[in-house]
Amino acid sequence: MPGKGKLFVISAPSGAGKTTLIRKVLTRFKNLAYSISHTTRSPRKNEQNGLDYFFISIDEFEQKITLDHWLEWAKVHDNYYGTSKSFIKTSLEKGRNLLLDIDVQGAGQIMALDLDLVSIFIMPPCFEILSQRLEKRGTDVKEVIVRRLENAKSEIARKDLFQYVVVNDKLDKAKEELCLIFKKEMAWP
Prior knowledge:
Mean pLDDT: 89
Distance between the termini: 22 Å
Strand order of the largest sheet: 2-7-1-8-9
Number of helices: 7
Structural class: alpha/beta
CATH class: Alpha Beta
Number of strands: 9
Strand content: 15-25%
CATH superfamily: P-loop containing nucleotide triphosphate hydrolases
Number of domains: 1
Helix content: 40-55%
Shape: globular
């Protein structure tokens, strides 16, 4: 029977570069799997159902809430996001190391569950750069960007709840710092 896998929870305000860093980490560690979350938001350009997220309807998501399907769930930027409880449990029992890319609300829910996990917060170098990244991304209208920036203030205020904080000011430096955390926590040679 394989050993129990390790759960890694990574959160950040929108635009901090979390997804870019996660992609780089996943290419470095073959014994690390990505846990695909569910969401009710529309796919962004180049996002694929079942690869980036499972895109489901609001009705389906809310039905799964009543059925206690979610390990964690939250409504963020007017959309639901959630992590399947059964997928996480089964994967960890099979000895898989899992990486969860989730919002700060969801991370807080998971960290309160008394699970053996590693929590990492990705910080933008400053609020001005975060704003520039969101605008440059070109995926949201101005009102959505303003809401994301407002939410970022409260998310950044919760960074001390996480075991590790990585500042994403220079991508290569942040990637190396993040990889060192994974090496340490997975006892990677």
